[in-house]
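Researcher: Here's a chain I'd like modeled. Treat it as a single chain, no partners, no ligands.
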Amino acid sequence: MELELFTIRLNIKHLLIRYSQDVQAMRDSQESGAAIGDGPILSLDDGEAQAIEKAKMLHERLVAMQKELAKG
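Model: Modeled as a single isolated chain. Structure tokens:
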């Protein structure tokens, strides 16, 4: 799991650096009340796309674990 988290962090960091101006534009458009999706569209490289998918899968696993723990 540590390697997976490291890979996710590394690729997300790369994404945020590479698209820092676009990410800021997305933040600005949301803060000004624009609809979600009105900001720029990012073209992800393979590593960035995989990091996003892995982060989604990790989130889903954690949510499932929380639900199991809540059941008792």
